Amino acid sequence: MTVPSLAPRAARVIVVGGGPAGAASAWALASLGHEVLILDRARFPRDKACAEYLSPQASRVLHAMGVLGDVERAGAAQLAGMTVRAPDGGIIHGEFAARHGFTAFRDRGLALRRRRLDPILLDGARRAGAQLREGVAVHDLERNAHGDVCGVWVRDAQGGAQRLRADLVIGADGLRSVVGRRLGVAAHLGWPFPRRVAFVAHWRGVQGVGAHGEMHVERDGYVGIADVGHGEVNVAIVVPRGRARDAAGDAAGFMDRWLARRPQLAPRFAGAARVTPVRATGPFAARATRAWAPGALLAGDAADFFDPFTGEGIYAALRGGELLAPFAADALRASGRGARLRALAAYDGARRREFGGKWLVERLIGTAVAVPALMNHAARTLGARRDMADLLVGVTGDIVPAREVLRPGFLLRLLAPPLRRAP
Ligand SMILES: Cc1cc2nc3c(=O)[nH]c(=O)nc-3n(C[C@H](O)[C@H](O)[C@H](O)COP(=O)(O)OP(=O)(O)OC[C@H]3O[C@@H](n4cnc5c(N)ncnc54)[C@H](O)[C@@H]3O)c2cc1C
Hints:
Bound molecules: flavin-adenine dinucleotide
Strand content: 15-25%
Structural class: alpha+beta
CATH class of the largest domain: Alpha Beta
Largest sheet: 8 strands, mixed
Number of helices: 13
Distance between the termini: 78 Å
CATH architecture of the largest domain: 3-Layer(bba) Sandwich
Helix content: 25-40%
Low-confidence stretches: 1-11
Number of strands: 22
Shape: globular
Number of domains: 2
């Protein structure tokens, strides 16, 4: 069955997914003068399982998109840094604004519920000229005689199918990207990388939540706690996939039981109320074997998402969307197929240069949190070396280049016996 046309005839770029990666890609390409159509199976505003913190450097992309003021006016909480509690109670505390010689566009991170943030990002894309169609799910790709992608197949809410042609398709459709799977590039990172699932909800009345995001690492997973404005606190519990079986059919009970077992958290939640359903998502540790194919590019989680511990997915999605635009534009301009493919393939190299160091840091931290003795040791060292803690928090905040903490000197100091505090 065919449904009435959903797209303007001349749409040349189709962006699948209207999350941060889709909105930023659409904004960047529309700003370059291309006709852009965003398709999302959801209708906005919608919730998304996420801890909802944006690193300080994300504000630079928000500013470029012309939406930073809107995000701040929407009541985003401001985060000054991070506090990490190791399984034995040791504390790592780092500030975004620190004396390490690096400065971000803003010295605070922002935190705002995705049902408020994502529509603002999409408004930025629309103001640049992109169009958005909601409630439209992409289920397959259209290919030409060479096998190159030249459009998508969509299904609307009534189940009607339609083919929409495009000169370029951007897969920004998240962790379980249909575009990535149809391109045959979707892959999971295997051993030794952990595969985890998350349970996320919003609470009111949690005691002692301040201007620092909190991560509590336990032997059976970790929980992130952060103010997201409007009197709400985001609580995101992340556990190994095997543990998630305990939640079968009762995610809310699982969250309540998990929090109640932590002596440092239970009293803080005693008078608090959960105000949104518990959303479960995962497993993560997914990475496309490459972020391009003839006629298509991938951005955001569709290309790579390792683990939420370092909380940088939104920045990577926004920056990834911005990053792909010149390569997409080169491909759209190219006269022959060879030149088109070279332009698209060059995007992969740019991603490695931009994100390669961060990928390594994310993998090291994301894997270390599964080893309690390592986390306890790191907390003792970093608890005594605030300069090192600030540097590490600066890397996770996209302020400090990843190479600063990948230097052998930093890693040796991290693993060496901790310094004694001065009496
Ligand atoms: C538990 C958890 C906590 C996290 N915490 C943080 C954090 O604090 N800070 C941070 O920066 N990052 C965090 N992240 C990561 C962050 O959520 C993602 O990296 C980010 O949302 C990626 O954006 P995206 O646009 O690539 O994908 P998404 O935000 O997932 O958007 C994808 C969009 O595509 C649409 N879509 C999907 N399939 C189709 C289809 N077939 N057709 C049409 N539309 C489709 C979806 O409806 C959705 O709107 C967290 C992730 C998890 C799981």
